[in-house]
Design brief:
There is one protein chain. With 526 residues, the chain is α/β, with parallel strands linked by helices. Helices cover 35% and strands 22% of the residues. The protein has 17 helices and 24 strands. A 7-stranded mixed β-sheet has the order 7-6-17-18-19-16-20, with helices on both faces. A 5-stranded parallel β-sheet has the order 10-2-1-14-22. Strands 13-12-11-15 form a 4-stranded mixed β-sheet. The longest helix is centred in the first third of the chain and has 25 residues. It starts with 25 loop residues before the first strand and ends with a helix.
Length: 526
């Protein structure tokens, strides 16, 4: 355990269910939320695990990075869920006193002004000003009279509904920074799911035009739980608990081979930091490693067409530059700001002192400038000093602080942060799933990268919980169809709000399906 005070009793054990394996040899690949949840749940049946984690700390994308006593959340993780089993497990791992209840506040920052989200009419009108507000209404009216001919893409769909000016101000820039492709190359069907009734454009239009046929719109949660030392605290304590209960964890250890025979995996081989191999027997394998890498590790190797499907999956990668400032210079209290300025590369800025005062040192705060990149591109490979200096300049360019006021900066990189839903991903994943079902039925993918699903932390945990139940109790939950809610988990729909379109399934979050041709072209452009 690191520098928190939580105790680590072993997970509660229960009587072994009738029909369950006497004592299976369980290997868990990946010590993020899904992997550690699986290990924790196995102990409730008296079954320890051997856990392999390629990183030097646990938590995966939900880890809390530490640099010189500062703590940085990778991407921001609100602890809010509609899945009671997950909420119960959070409080089983951490005592109530280790959770803070934090107000939810995030705004759009554009041209030096803060736009509330969800939008308040007075705030939006005051920020836009009479002239710009009038132009927005005129642009909206023009789009209604003469909408874009092509509305099959995200850009045309948005312009038709909000007008060109609102689209360019509040939709275009952030979306393109996040996914790395033009909005015009994203599909309109994603827009219908993403925007729904909760949109800045609708709120502005409704504030400026006569209120006819307006419906209740989605609202967001107003507060959320947060471990006082960051989300990584949850997984550091979870690791302590599964270790105390008898599991073993190997950090900086990468799985390189999974031997299979007779339709099942039988051994897992991993390489540690010293280059030494270790091989363990496996009756059940729960994997949150990227499914593409999982299939590439199979021995005997998978057929060429399966290998090609694994190699064909694509990911968007992430880095954050955390800048330390005197506390009094941070003048906003948002959890994060969405940056819609096209002149800077950062897409969002986290305020770690707002997440938790335990994340920062007395008298100081840290702002985390977030970037999505392609692993191996110039930004990913840039020196930390260059990235820190650029972040300082961007902070000054935005008017949030002077570059010279920054005391120090740190860079944290996260590969494979976002599975990319291109037009080939679903077929590729189906190929991988089919091969596993026939040749390695006891290998169970879970979590975001394990399943190549754009999951939230709670949904990743839930797939692991159901998987353990399937293994130990013989249930038949289809974790690939986990759809614990129809709407995004931080939204609260009013009774009159529309539901998600029929046929849309997943785990509560949507991502655009992007043409592979477009994706590759944009990667080359950087």
């Amino acid at each position: 355990m690191s520098d928190n005070e939580a105790t680590s009793p072993a997970p509660t054990q229960t009587d072994e269910p009738t029909g369950a394996a006497a004592s299976p040899n369980v290997v868990v690949i990946g010590a993020g939320p899904a992997g550690l949840t699986a290990a924790y749940q196995f102990h409730k049946y008296g079954v320890p695990s051997v856990i392999f984690e390629a990183d030097d700390q646990v938590g995966g994308i939900s880890r809390t990075a530490k640099r010189d006593g500062w703590r940085f959340d990778i991407g921001g993780h609100r602890f809010f869920t509609k899945v009671k089993q997950v909420d119960d497990l959070w409080h089983e791992i951490l005592p109530d006193e280790d959770f803070l209840m934090r107000p939810r506040k995030s705004r759009i920052f554009y041209e030096g002004k803060y736009y509330d989200y969800p939008l308040k009419a007075s705030n939006a009108l005051g920020n836009l000003g009479v002239i710009e507000a009038t132009k927005c209404v005129g642009s909206y009216a023009k789009a209604k009279i003469r909408p874009p001919k092509d509305q099959t893409n995200y850009e045309g769909w948005l312009v038709a509904r909000f007008g060109q000016r609102l689209y360019e101000t509040f939709f275009k820039t952030y979306t393109e920074k996040l996914w790395g492709v033009s909005v015009s190359d994203m599909p309109a069907d994603w827009a219908a799911q993403r925007v729904k009734g909760l949109s800045l454009g609708n709120a502005i239009v409704n504030a400026l035009l006569p209120k006819r046929n307006q419906k209740d719109i989605t609202s967001l949660i107003e507060e959320f739980q947060y471990p006082k030392y960051g989300p990584g605290m949850m997984w550091e304590v979870c690791l302590d608990k599964v270790t105390a209960a008898g599991s073993t964890t190997h950090l900086r250890t990468s799985v390189t081979r999974i031997r299979h025979e007779g339709g099942r995996a039988v051994e897992v081989t991993a390489v540690g930091p010293d280059g030494a191999e270790q091989t363990v027997a496996a009756d059940e394998v729960v994997s949150s490693m990227p499914i593409s890498q999982l299939l590439e590790a199979m021995d005997p190797p998978v057929p060429a067409e399966v290998h090609a499907a694994a190699a064909d999956l694509r990911y968007r990668d992430y880095l954050i530059v955390a800048l330390v400032l005197p506390e009094e210079l941070v003048t906003f209290d948002d959890n994060w700001l969405y940056i819609h300025d096209p002149e800077v590369r950062t897409m969002r800025i986290q305020n770690f002192g707002s997440w938790s005062p335990y994340m920062v040192k007395p008298g100081f705060n840290t702002l985390g400038l977030e970037y999505t990149v392609w692993e191996g591109d110039d930004e990913w490979n840039a020196d930390d000093d260059f990235l820190v200096e650029r972040a300082k300049k961007e902070l000054e360019q935005l008017g949030l602080a002077k570059a010279g006021e920054v005391h120090e900066g740190f860079v944290v990189r996260q590969a494979k942060a976002y599975p990319i839903y291109d037009d080939r991903y679903r077929a590729n994943v189906d190929v991988l799933r089919a091969w596993l079902g026939e040749h390695a039925a006891n290998v169970h993918p879970v979590g975001r990268n394990g399943m190549f699903r754009y999951n939230n932390q709670d949904h990743s945990m839930f797939t692991a919980m159901l998987t353990v139940e399937n293994i130990m109790e013989g249930t038949t939950h289809d974790v690939w169809e986990v759809n614990v809610e129809e709407e995004y988990h931080e939204e609260q729909l009013s009774p009159s709000a529309t539901e998600r379109p029929p046929g849309s399934h997943g785990t509560g979050r949507d991502a655009p399906v992007i043409s592979r041709e477009v994706l590759e072209a944009n990667k080359k452009l950087g």
